[in-house]
């Protein structure tokens, strides 16, 4: 009887060691995520990086996402386009980040407010809050789970030689508080871009008062800024840093524990250790053009990507890991005992596979931000035009041309956007199909492959 109990306890302990998995993600298999926002969502990459993380970290939990940002939009604008631009996607999850165009940036300066100006500023925020409440209710009525993102920052503290609207960031902080109140009402989740980015921006400016984590216009982040935003999104949503973890006892020739992977068939003969490795996730690859994010947040990649191989009990010396017969890394016995992060090694076939997924994701995002959202932007911008058939390409182009001719500012930008519409709108169906195919290909490519692992004493040419 005692023997049976001991066997059962041993079996349970072994099962626990080899069955550890990652926590459940906020996105479920079959979800449809709509990222609702303004230009920072329309053209920016934070949601694309978030999507890449979940595709590589949870490749068996396929869900889709749509960019529902429109340049220049507001909460009231999102309400106005809800029925034709957001609802048809039938989102099961929506993230909402709005406010930058709601607060009336042109009203802000370093001059004291008159009572009338203070009232106008308050009215703008009140209208924003009311429209956000309407938008949230529409989404909830359609059975959508909500993620409220406090607005990304307006950099009012950088000493850069660019026009400043001092006070805008404080107004965005109030918008963020309104979002928190809506989240509490609707059982939503809060992602705090505003607080986290304000703190990081202040830290960066301690070293260089003219620096900024957003762009030279004080509003639009570059790729590094968007990766920082994705990082804060993932952290606030409980995304795990772990990809996998394997711990091996070399002295006992045994796998002691695994997390989110299988490691079996281990042998340690003649100083060479061999085993089979099958991960359930891929590492998160660093997107191109985002290295500056690591200067701002050195912990960022470590917090998003830890594929740890721990090998204890090795004799003193250096050892080289080969994966599928290719040299990946050489480290000494102490480093292996502490754990080597395979997920950040350039030669790792797992990271290389994740890089292929990233390329597909970049193409998918580019189609959406450059073309599909351009088409939606023009329809939205002409929504008040009377007797206009939005499906009539020639009529739309005529109105766009007339509207641009009447502009007194930003003509260059809008003319460029009109050119994109003119050249690419006829291919809309093709772009939609390509986006869907790229999404499917991403998820298929993200399935981890079995790997053959070999650890042997280092040789002279291993470090070349």
TrEMBL record:
Keywords: Signal
Annotated signal sequence range: 1-19
Segments forming domain SGNH hydrolase-type esterase: 35-226
Gene Ontology molecular-function annotations: phosphatidylcholine lysophospholipase activity
Pfam families cross-referenced by the UniProt entry: Lipase_GDSL_2
PANTHER family cross-referenced by the UniProt entry: SGNH HYDROLASE-TYPE ESTERASE DOMAIN-CONTAINING PROTEIN (PTHR30383:SF5), THIOESTERASE 1/PROTEASE 1/LYSOPHOSPHOLIPASE L1 (PTHR30383)
UniProt protein name: Lysophospholipase L1-like esterase
């Amino acid at each position: 009887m005692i023997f049976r109990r001991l066997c059962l306890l041993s079996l349970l302990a072994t099962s626990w060691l080899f069955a550890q998995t990652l926590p459940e993600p906020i996105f479920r298999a079959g979800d449809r995520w709509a990222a609702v926002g303004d230009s920072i969502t329309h053209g920016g990459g934070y949601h694309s990086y978030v999507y890449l993380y979940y595709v590589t970290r949870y490749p068996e939990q396929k869900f889709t996402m749509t960019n529902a940002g429109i340049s220049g939009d507001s909460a009231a604008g999102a309400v106005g386009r809800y029925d034709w631009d957001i609802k048809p996607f039938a989102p099961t999850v929506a993230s909402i980040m709005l406010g930058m165009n709601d607060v009336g940036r042109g009203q802000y300066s370093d001059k004291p407010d008159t009572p009338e100006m203070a009232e106008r500023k308050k009215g703008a925020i009140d209208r924003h809050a009311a429209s956000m409440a309407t938008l949230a209710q529409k989404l909830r009525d359609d059975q959508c789970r909500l993620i409220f993102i406090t607005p990304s920052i307006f950099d009012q503290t950088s000493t850069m030689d660019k026009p400043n609207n001092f006070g805008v960031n404080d107004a965005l902080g109030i918008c963020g508080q309104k979002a928190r109140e809506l989240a509490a009402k609707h059982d939503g989740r809060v992602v705090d871009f505003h607080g986290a980015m304000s703190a990081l921006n202040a830290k960066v400016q301690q070293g260089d008062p003219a620096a900024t984590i957003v762009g030279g216009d004080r509003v639009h982040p570059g790729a590094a800024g968007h990766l920082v935003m994705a990082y804060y999104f993932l952290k606030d949503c409980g995304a795990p840093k772990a990809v996998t973890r394997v711990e091996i006892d070399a002295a006992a020739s045994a796998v002691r524990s695994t997390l989110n992977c299988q490691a079996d068939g281990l042998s340690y003969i003649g100083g060479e250790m061999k085993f089979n490795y099958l991960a359930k996730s891929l590492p998160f690859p660093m997107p191109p053009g985002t290295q500056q994010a690591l200067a701002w947040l050195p912990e960022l990649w470590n917090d998003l990507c830890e594929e740890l191989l721990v090998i204890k009990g090795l004799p003193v010396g250096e050892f080289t890991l080969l994966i599928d017969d290719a040299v990946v890394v050489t480290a000494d016995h102490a480093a292996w005992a502490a754990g080597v992060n395979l997920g950040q090694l350039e030669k790792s076939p797992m990271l290389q596979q994740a890089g292929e997924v990233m390329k597909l994701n970049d193409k998918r995002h580019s189609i959406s931000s450059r073309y599909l959202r351009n088409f939606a932007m023009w329809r939205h911008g002409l929504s008040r035009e009377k007797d206009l058939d939005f499906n009539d390409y020639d009529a739309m182009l005529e109105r766009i041309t007339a509207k641009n001719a009447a502009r007194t500012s930003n003509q260059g930008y809008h003319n460029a956007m009109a050119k994109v519409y003119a050249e690419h709108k006829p291919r809309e169906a093709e772009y939609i199909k390509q986006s869907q195919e790229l999404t499917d290909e991403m998820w298929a490519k993200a399935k981890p492959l079995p790997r053959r692992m070999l650890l042997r004493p280092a040789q002279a040419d291993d470090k070349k």
